[in-house]
Amino acid sequence: MRLSKYFLPVLKETPKEAEIVSHRLMLRAAMLKQEASGLYAWLPLGYRVLRKVQNIIEQEQDRAGAIELLMPTLQPADLWRESGRYDAYGKEMLRIQDRHERDMLYGPTNEEMITSIFRSNVKSYKDLPLNLYHIQWKFRDEIRPRFGTMRSREFLMKDAYSFDLTKEEAVKSYHRMFVAYLRTYYRMGLTAVPMQAETGPIGGDLSHEFIVLADTGESGVFCDKALLDQPIPPKDVDFDGDLTSYVRDWTTMYAATEDMIDMDKFQSEVPEDRRIEARGIEVGQVFYFGTKYSEPMGATVADANGQEVPVHMGSYGIGLTRLVPAIIEASHDDDGIIWPVSVAPFELALINLKAGDEECASTCDGLYKQLENAGIEVLYDDRDMGAGGKFATADLIGLPYQMIVGPRGLKNNEVEIKNRKTGERTNVSLEQAVDFLLERIVPERRQDV
Ligand code: 5CA
Questions:
Q1: Any idea which UniProt keywords this protein has (predicted)?
Q2: Atom from ligand 1 closest to the CA of residue 160
């Protein structure tokens, strides 16, 4: 993409309304624009990141055996009357009437609708286990939407729903999602620690929140430091096999949010020098809630004896529009964002230092083609302006690598490559520049881990 043809209205000033760094940077880097309280437009740069996050989630969900579909944002109230949640959900739910005065709502979550899809289509235990997921906008009329898309009213969520014959089988489904989550966050450059959690309006008796440690997080958390170094299940993990050992690795050591903390247990189980008392961002939550929805809604299957039994269910959420700021909270400096390659809107900023210089322009044009042919995602700053502004933009929007092309370097047949994260600068010959980048960028995509 040529920056001269792109839409990247970066801000020089720091917007006053933004209280935390990720919100400030998302506004300054032209990723977002607020349209109303808790409602945001995703501008092109932000949308590219959101799509990368979505891709990783889809790959890991699919790998774990979940099947993608798409349900509507609007739902009939009658479904929610069946589960009893229409009244229970309260003011967070946006209630709407259509022209026939039928009660509708903008979905805050989809347990009811997926249960209705299930009950109309699945009749036998032989069709289980089943896990269906979608990635769809949700609306929750939060009392205090804040921190940009960290806590917004409309937000994009991945929600998966598992169906099993027995509790024992349902726990296996829970484990599959648990392992997929560890891999998903890791691929985005995050360490998300699973912590015992309350179940709130979703219900059930088994739940973990996945928490990224960050000072600006909304949850107080308590955990064992050693958890941060636990191994991530590998790409070829067998989702049909026994996953308990992975789950055990991540759940044996103490970790709980402030809602669930048992101080005596925390202090007796975790040696003092390993106790983390910190804040964190909840980037996902998984629930097992048995027959809470299947029973009132009549989602049953025939078991091996021909007996109709309600299925055991779980649900598994990831907040995509929250993950993007969470990644920024975990990875930025005074100059701007530092994207991990795997979610970067572009992998490389190609910077022509001297606009108007014919040799610089033609070399950059040539490199741009070569880089694109090599499959590197390039944002080519070909604008007719000084180098200072180009550097500032590249640092602000946080592309992992910069390739800087100027007359001085070209005299020696060289370009400069800067690593945004480490600040390290290397002069590389024109001939080797593309390979130099490929060697670094390809493993950092984390597609094969
Ligand atoms: N039905 C279940 C799981 S599918 C569910 O709704 N779970 S949840 O309430 O925990 O939401 C799942 C994830 O969505 C949360 O972990 C969080 O990352 C994200 N999320 C929830 N509320 C918001 C919000 N107001 N703004 C941004 N993200 C949110």
A1: Aminoacyl-tRNA synthetase, ATP-binding, Cytoplasm, Ligase, Nucleotide-binding, Protein biosynthesis
A2: 4
CATH number of the structural domain spanning residue 27: 3.30.930.10
Last residue of some domain: 290, 313, 337?
Answer: 337
**Closest atom, ligand 1, to C-alpha of 284:** 16
Residue 51 to residue 57: CA distance in whole angstroms:
10
CA dist., res. 350 & res. 365, Å (int): 10
pLDDT at 200 > cutoff 90: no
Tokens at 390, concatenated: 């180009």
In this predicted structure, the answer to whether residue 307 has a pLDDT above a threshold of 80 is yes
Quote helix, strand, coil % in the chain, to nearest 5. Answer: 40, 30, 35
Query: Where does residue 398 fall: left (phi above 0), alpha (psi -120 to 50 degrees), or beta otherwise?
Result: left
pLDDT at 199: 81
pTM of the model: 0.97
Q: How far is the CA of 35 from the centre of ligand 1 (A)?
A: 21
Helix 358-373 and helix 433-444, axial crossing angle in degrees, nearest 10: 40
Domain total in the chain: 2
Helix (H, G, I), strand (E, B), or coil: what is residue 169? helix
Closest C-alpha residue for ligand 1 atom 23: 151
- Mutation test residue for ligand 1: of 50, 322, 327, the one with most atoms within 8 Å of CB: 322
Q: Whose CA is nearest to atom 21 of ligand 1?
A: 319
**What are the C-alpha distances in Å from 355 to residues 136, 352, 364, 395, 404?**
43, 6, 11, 19, 12
Enclosing domain of residue 304: 3-337
